[in-house]
Design a protein that fits this description.
Two copies of one chain form a homodimer.
Chain A: E1 4-9, E2 13-19, H1 26-33, E3 38-44, H2 45-60, E4 65-71, H3 80-92, E5 100-105, H4 107-119, E6 125-130, H5 133-139, E7 144-149, E8 152-159, E9 164-168, H6 177-194, H7 196-203, H8 214-231, H9 246-255, H10 263-280, H11 288-298, H12 309-317, E10 326-334, E11 337-344, H13 345-352
Parallel strand pairs in A: 2-9, 3-4, 3-5, 5-6, 6-9
Antiparallel strand pairs in A: 1-2, 7-8, 10-11
Helix pairs in contact in A: 3-4, 5-6, 5-8, 6-7, 6-8, 6-10, 9-10, 9-12, 10-11, 12-13
């Protein structure tokens, strides 16, 4: 098996291991990073069906004590309600400070299990096994953990680095296409903000052929995020670039009440709305918007979702990225080149009109 | 006004200001540490009645935007339920990353408002205004924040340093005597673990006369805690000494379902149980137990609460300080001298019998 390894040097140093089918022997990798005797696997019902037993068996076959909590899949589970059920589960199973949580699943699982790991007993170890493309390229890297509130996404959270991330690219085969498409939104974002080379690979492939270069693509995305996170772990500057398309994207998700629209789709629309706008204003090089639209189309990310921008603005101004009366927006001046700009609420409203 | 100031150099550096009646002009001190325009005051109904308006007025008179959340007093409020109501309150009031939480109240308020500050938007600034003796000498120093779970106290939490702590010793006059007694449990603990000099002051006073030297006593307690926290912010060694009497104390509180018994009383009993035991085993110098009992009696902390030790052991083994199959216990060998010892569950059970 050919494995790729990326080391992240954040406040805690940890490895991300990328390879096909490594989930079957996951404990072989886990044991290099974690010395616990007892593991709490947290996953959703979709993922549990495919990989719950695989992970539990690998741990049990190595003599480890394992308990498992399965919650219903979907963003609705990323709530304080699920969080409390995780806390109680950890408590009932006598999980101590030297034990370890395994977050097995997509972004929702990684975020909520990671937040539980950050806060239960003021912090215990956790390992991420992301099973969606989105989670592999995005939410499993960088140590941001979160739950949603009724008032918005990710409004409660913590910075908590995992001890290890295992990216099994083989599991992406079992993903329904919509989930794969969802992840491609973030993949294209990485090309837009930081890598013309990655963007070129993406525009030269499509939803089918991309699979032949997927390991390389995932590695590139994770490397970009790693570099950014190492420079700005606590999200005070450079890291904001990762939010390209996200302020508007989040407000689109909110507009649709987080249903019927994927995160990737919302981010894709967010990237389009802001780039059309900045190209009109000559901040972005002519032609970038068109290249973005064509590339998104190759990955089924160009569907028409166009809530009126004026209705998105109030939610944008309520985004957690705002600071006092200001909001930071991310702008691509060219493919692979981006920067952030601080605007007052009035400037932002004017800017978007 | 004579003010005392202690600077804590933890992962974030901050000041603790001690003085009589400084709450009335609290913004004068807050403005040196925090630049926010908007403040969320979090307090309980008891404290609100005495000081809610005082704090809000000081902020408003200086042109600040202020919102206030009042929850019912008592340990029962240190729950995920109250926490969620705080999150929703912050959200509804559009509190952003550059705004600031004011935790106004005793230990419960400081712990839960501090945890909200640690996790809302992945962390915003907060200021502690502790209004009980216990909170002034203990929970406002050191950056530990927490909420309780049905399974036990402080099982969810985070390390989060405040930007400033304001200890108004004048407010202790409005404390009901039971609350004052409660705090004296921790004050005596500081003498036991680190300072024969402090212990001597305590045994030479009583519940009435101690008020004449209270500023000095509070300063000494905070200094001890500050020194320990600076050495071991994340609770891996030296800081464990602060748990003297607490593992058994917590299990006593649990045994009584956290009602009818104060934290100070439980810790006092915990200190007595462990010290009687270690003195019997010649680990503690002869006579220390007796001095402890006499000193506790002067502060109404020697009431007979003696749940059978055997019934406390299971809860002790479930304490969050346990590590795998081991538990750390804190032992005083002499007044002002303490150390910690790691015992297996079996050793601990044997030790306590």
């Amino acid at each position: 098996m050919v494995l790729k390894k990326i080391t992240v040097k954040a406040s805690d140093e940890y490895d991300i291991i990328i390879g096909k089918d490594l989930i079957h022997d996951c404990y072989e990798y886990i044991k290099t990073a974690v010395k616990s005797d007892c593991f709490a696997v947290i996953t959703d019902d979709n993922v549990d069906e495919f990989y719950g037993n695989t992970v539990v068996s690998s741990l049990k076959n190595n003599g480890k004590t394992v308990c498992k909590l399965v919650f219903p899949h979907g963003e609705a589970s990323k709530s304080t309600l699920t969080l409390n059920s995780i806390y109680e589960f950890l408590c009932e199973n006598n999980i101590t400070r030297t034990d370890c949580i395994i977050a097995l699943g997509g972004g929702v699982t990684g975020d909520i299990a990671g937040f539980a790991a950050a806060t239960y007993l003021r912090g215990i170890d956790y390992v991420q096994i992301p099973t969606s493309l989105l989670a592999q390229v995005d939410s499993s890297v960088g140590g941001k953990t979160a739950v949603d509130l009724p008032g918005g996404k990710n409004l409660v959270g913590a910075f908590k680095q995992p001890k290890l991330v295992l990216c099994d690219t083989g599991v992406l085969k079992t993903l329904p296409r919509d989930y794969f498409v969802d992840g491609m939104g973030e993949v294209i974002k990485y090309g837009m903000i930081k890598s013309a080379e990655l963007f070129e690979i993406l525009e030269n492939h499509d939803i089918e052929s991309i699979h032949s270069v997927l390991d390389e693509v995932i590695l590139k995305c994770i490397s970009i995020k790693r570099d950014i996170v190492e420079e700005d772990e606590f999200d005070k500057g450079e890291r904001m670039l990762l939010n390209f398309g996200h302020t508007i994207g989040h407000s689109i998700e909110k507009y649709y009440n987080f249903s019927g629209i994927s995160h990737g789709m919302a981010v894709a629309s967010g990237m389009k709305i802001i780039t059309r706008n900045t190209e009109d204003k000559n901040i972005t090089k002519k032609g970038v918007y068109n290249k973005l639209v064509l590339c998104l189309a190759k990955y089924y990310l160009n569907e028409i979702i166009n809530p009126p921008v004026s209705e998105l603005i109030p939610a944008c101004l309520n985004d957690k990225k705002r600071e006092g009366g200001f909001i930071n927006i991310i702008i691509c001046e060219d493919i692979g080149k981006s920067f952030y700009k601080k605007l007052s609420f009035d400037e932002f409203t004017g800017f978007m009109n």
